[in-house]
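User: Once you have settled down, look closely at the record that follows, taking as long as you need, and be ready to discuss the fold:
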Amino acid sequence: MASKEEQILRVLSEDLQPLEDVRACMVVRKRLEGIVPITEDFKHEIVEIWEILKKTMDDLFDVVSHYSRFGLDKIYFELGKYDVMFFILPSTDTALVAIVPVLANRGLLEVEMENARRKILSIIEGD
């Protein structure tokens, strides 16, 4: 049986990475600790924003840790020509994150992200 980390990595690589608009996806907490698929699999175009993205995400996780207890569920921010979608895992300091182009179909991506978040929560909870 695969470990929980391997199962979560499979959700990322099979459910989210194949989507045309997903440039990168991960399940992480502050300092990008967590499950990040191999960086070479990320679309090369996000390399230019990677360092500022890491800093921005660290700052955002401070907000997540402070407000998630009040029901903070999702955060979106625009960084250059990309949207960063944070789907917070309830009662944690961790989020499912996807980086997509600003003009991506956010409605479709939200459905796919929510489905992936549910699968990941099921894995974490051991179901």
In short: Strands lie at 24-29, 33-35, 74-79, 82-88, 95-101.
